[in-house]
Amino acid sequence: MTALIRFLFRKMWNTRWMTLSTLAGLFVAVAFTTSIPMYADGALKRVVSQSLQDNSEGLPAGSMLIRYQSTDGKTDLESFRNVDQYIREEIKSDIGFPVEVSQRSLTLRSSEVSPEDPTKVDASRTRKLSIASFEGLKEQVEMAGGKWFADTSDSDGTIQAVMMEEALFRSDLHVGDVLLYSIAGETLRVKIVGAFKPADDNNPYWYQGLEGLMNYLYVADPVLLEDLSAKRGIPIQIASWYSAFDLREIQTSQLSPLSNKLSRIDIEVYKKLKDTRLELSFAEMLNDFRRDSIQLQTMLFTLAAPMIAMVFYFITMNTQQALEKQRSDIAVLRSRGASTRQIFMLFLLEGALLGLVALVVGPLFGWFMAKSIGSASGFLHFVDRKAIPVGFSIDGVLAGVAAVIVAIAATVIPALVFTRTSIVDYKRQMARGDRKPFWQKWFIDVLLLGVAGYGWYLFNERQMVTFKTGMTTDQLNVQPFLFFVPALSIFAAGLVFLRLFPLLLKLFNLLWQRILPVPFYLTLTQLSRSSKSYYPLMILLVLTLGLGVYNSSAARTIGLNSEERIMYKYGTDVIVQTVWEGTPEFKQPTKQGGGNGGGGGGGQGERPTPTKFNYNEPPFEVFRTLPGVEHAARVLQTKSSMTVSGKTAGQATIMGIDNVDFARVGWLRKDMYQINPYKYLEWMGQVPEGAFISSNVAKKFGLKRGDMVQTVIQEQTVEFIILDILPYWPSLYPDQAPFLIANLGYIYDQVPLIPYDVWLKMEPDAKVQDIIPVLQKEGIELASINSMRSELTTQSKHPARGGVFGILSLGFLVTIIVSLSGYILFWFFNLSRRVVQIGILRAMGLSRKQLTGMLLLEQIFTAGLSIGLGIGIGKLASLLFLPFLQTTDNSTNQVPPFRVVFEAADTNRLYIVVGVMMTIGVALLITHIRRLKVHQAVKLGEER
Hints:
Number of helices: 27
Number of strands: 26
Oligomer: single chain
């Protein structure tokens, strides 16, 4: 075994570059897979308390209430002590989280009490009180009078009690009063020795609410349990155990076990004491959050799966190259007596050693990646904000172990195949190097392309399951299969291209072989005869660059469309609604008399009804000078009935604007309109009575430019001339109600003044809070302020959104690193294997310039074509699949229209990487040729 290990380290040192590249691939795979559970844990910790708070009806996060209520008028004290110990010790230990607050309350049956001395206390009043003991009560109150009760009864059996100060006032009682309490055939003598008030009314200790605790006489725990229940046999009517656990450090791996423990509590407490039940727990909420957490992890893993698979492919490619280089060594070892098991163990030990190193170091980088995911607010946009509390978890370790096992399998299985090959089989296979790969022989590439096509068909039919991320503002519906199926289609298209690649080379050679220069001819001949050896690099480049283009476009498309939906919803940065003071005008009452033919007179007046309001307009110019405001505009929105050629068109939204101001504040996307939208606003300034109408109404009634429409505003008929027909306008949704855009000044010339909103265009870093005190100082009362930026900020902080953009951003960076590393390593080992071939060509008379040209043409024909194909397939996949980001729910009413986005900066980054790759490749081959010595290359032996 020692010799085997020594031989292993010697082999790893001799192939150290291959070993290091494989270790780097393992390192990235482990980091990527562990970062997702880490991020999910961090996202869980960030939102769990708030989520539980929202679903606990005002109680703290992690509230649990167990209650016993006697139904037979008896209490088994031994069973009670058992359940009390179980709740106070075992349950808290099993749950394993700190207890923020706890309370055990014991209550006897309520009874009508009477004063011992009617001369001191009004005996005519009915007072129904209950004796109770609350654990830890003294620490939660302040004394308002008297003293605290004693822990035991007095020698004459008198029980000392305290009451709330407010309760004493309501019951007309005082400190020092003695009450007679009848229960279980006995009359207890209770003396009120003190009054208290809660130290903090909002403390979760008072989970019942203070109002429900007014009719209690609070006594010591030993008095109620020992003196009353144990000695006098008075049963406990109600016992409640309340605890609020601090769940801020909860992890996803704890959700399922904790839910199971909570579900067992109800069974265990009833078993120990009959009529004891778990009335309130956070088990159901934990299950809901566990479902959401699994959904989040599933979505993120599905998004990351193509990138992780790409890394595994990179590892496999490196291993394959290393095995090809060592294949003759394996065959020699087999011929010298080494068993298949020994050689297999050699490679297994190597994979296990590298996997162990990656498993130790990888999670540390995975922690950093999880932090980066948490800080992502957009694609390749990481912001400095409050970090997600990321930590190591069991799920993360298991994910890393799974990644290592898969990677080891990818490296060991080919070695197992090679160990069964003798030296004779190896030489026979070398002589038959033109055999087709198995995937070409079995048409797996065509099959995968068909599967990808069927996936596109299912998307087109809206039959894929939609994973909703739970966004409340603009639902960012992300279908993870929209990242898996396109990756499959990119891979399949690359394989199909590789099937056609040799045929294209042969056709090109056939057409141009008579006129091609020698380097060109040698390049085509080399590629035609050994095209199979270039397949790993070509498919890696197609896959990495195709995924890079698709993921960058997907991220930009998701981000831009979700943001633009919010921008369109608001129409501007801030919308301010002010309070307008108005005085109503009443319609004069009319009298009704007798009709024709006489009958008696008489009549009755109608109640006066307001016909309109005369409003006083708040000063508008103040808004232009607010801090942080660039521009302000008046925008009127009101509902009105519309008439077209005497036909009723129904209710419509009338928007009145000042065209110049609106051009400065409104959000207008130019590709949504047939002409520049600012041209429309210019037309409005030229035609005061001009208006724009929504396309749905125009289509229904066949309206064209120059037609007239009528609306009724404030009981006044207003006519408009149609200037043009528009499909959309900021903040207006034609599918909900048709709209008409007109000049605000023209409307106010026709109808009395009615309230309008103020739209504000803010400076980039301005805050809405700064304008409120200024407006209040000017005497302008605010009805509401709606901020588009606030909603965008809320959306950007959502864990699902950050996860999507974080995974896609890191995936894009990993794509660049893998493609660059794979390209450099491939050509490095490719050139080192062909030393003899290049030496022979030099000896035959080819100059260094011709050799350089030949190898450069090889790079262009292989890497160049793969790079161009990868970018092209990525863009084609984006155009085919990204429109399906619109789900069934929002595809028909997507406003503004959905669009696929290609950011030039992302493509430029890929081009830069490609340029660096090609430059390094050229530098490698030039350096290799310059260092080549013909007399050393041309020698007896074979290529290694």
